[in-house]
Specification:
The protein is of the alpha/beta class. The chain folds into 2 domains: about 190 residues, Rossmann fold, CATH 3.40.50; about 170 residues, 3-Layer(aba) Sandwich (Rossmann fold). It contains 11 helices and 15 strands. The strands form 2 sheets. Strands 3-2-1-4-5-6-14-15 form an 8-stranded mixed β-sheet, with helices on both faces. A 7-stranded mixed β-sheet has the order 9-8-7-10-11-13-12, sandwiched between helices. Helix 5 crosses helix 6. The longest helix has 30 residues.
């Protein structure tokens, strides 16, 4: 199969979907790999490194889109990329379709086969989402700590405090991968941390393994409202696989929070778990509503592309190899895991949570007729 890697064009997105080592593995498996020129520069990967791995460097994105059967990306195709996607072509990337009706409709119209990293399941885990969730969870505390500084509009509190002075209070909504990594970072910096979740087993686990400056508490709307006046930094870390994030903090709840407090909504790429959330960029990451700073960057790991690119390829490469080997038609039949990643196939929505979000017809992936692929 001919596999393509294009340069990401989302604002401040410096990751790339495949490292030279990944190219080497695909070529050894008998595939041809085309890489857009300068695609890896933001991650410190030069074209010559891809050439040494036997990739063919293509001068522009059009050349990759036109020539390749399988196109690998990091982030969802932007609207200027939609016309380049053709019927029967296969895309493998983060889509987060439930947060974007226009993107969902556009992918249906292309007739392409859209496999989403974030919904691929293996034994009730999401292995292709996990590495970026780990990065985003850790970055959420770094970002929160910076924007709590007075010079940036925050309340001027240091997360860990100092002897004789109160430490900051951090509220983490969700105890999954993002929430756990955020809580671990906040605890390590010495903050007073509370994690809310509705999974009692997860709460027991966190209570056992995390430091003593963390409390693991069952989440209810009442408990969230009770803790908001206490929190200096709130991390939104809630995930429902493939579906829009639940709104846990409403606009009216902001009046409960301290002036200069900070919300980092990591769930923004799934619509956000804070009603006042809207996607921002690394170039302009924060806005303020009712005195509360909102950090809602939708591609947080893009700020640390060297780490993120290698972590992403480590996770995705086995599935890229399998998808390239089987093709989309056989992948749906022979790989239950890749079938869970199928979100839109040949114009049909094949992921139930996306269909339910927008009231669209749902077709099981195995029931889609793919011709000639």
């Amino acid at each position: 199969m001919r596999v393509g890697v294009v340069r990401e064009i989302k604002s401040q997105e410096n990751r790339v979907a495949l490292t030279p080592a990944g190219v080497d593995r695909l070529v050894e498996a008998g595939h041809e790999v085309l890489v857009e020129a300068q695609a890896g520069v933001g991650s410190g990967l030069e074209d010559e490194q891809y050439r040494l791995a036997k990739a063919r460097i293509v001068p522009d994105a059009k050349g990759v889109w036109d020539a390749c059967d399988l196109v690998l990306k990091v982030k969802e195709p932007l609207n200027q990329e939609w016309p380049r996607i053709r019927r029967g072509q296969t895309l493998f990337t983060y889509f987060h379709l439930a947060a974007d009706r226009a993107l969902t409709d556009a992918m249906c119209k292309t007739g392409a086969n859209c496999f989403a990293y974030e919904t691929l399941e293996v034994g009730r885990t999401l292995p292709l989402l996990t590495p970026m969730s780990e990065v985003a969870g850790r970055m959420a505390i770094q970002a929160g700590a910076q924007w709590l500084e007075k010079s940036r509009g925050g309340s001027g509190i240091l997360l860990g405090g100092v002897p004789g002075v109160d430490r900051a209070h951090v509220l983490v909504l969700g105890g999954g991968v993002v929430g756990t990594q955020a809580a671990r970072m906040a605890c390590g910096l010495g903050a007073d941390v509370t994690v809310l979740d509705t999974n009692l087993e997860r709460l027991r686990y966190l209570d056992e393994v995390m430091p003593r400056n963390l409390k693991a508490i069952y989440s209810t709307p009442f408990k969230i409202r009770e803790l908001l006046p206490w929190a200096d930094l709130v991390i939104g870390a809630v995930l429902i696989p493939g579906a829009a994030a639940p709104r846990l903090i409403r606009r009216e709840d902001l009046k409960l929070m301290k002036p200069g407090s900070v919300i980092v909504d990591v769930a923004v790429d799934q619509g956000g778990c804070v009603e006042t959330c809207r996607p921002t960029t690394h170039a302009d990451p924060v806005f303020t509503i009712d005195g509360v700073l909102h950090y809602c960057v939708a591609n947080m790991p893009g700020a640390v592309p060297r780490t993120s690119t290698f972590a992403l390829t480590n996770a995705t490469l086995p599935w890229v190899l399998r998808l390239a080997q089987l093709g989309p038609k056989q992948a749906l039949k022979r790989s239950p895991e890749l079938a869970t990643a199928a979100n839109v196939m040949a114009g049909q929505v094949t992921y139930k949570a996306v269909a339910e979000t927008f009231g669209l017809p749902y077709t099981a992936p195995t029931e889609v007729e793919l011709v000639g692929v």
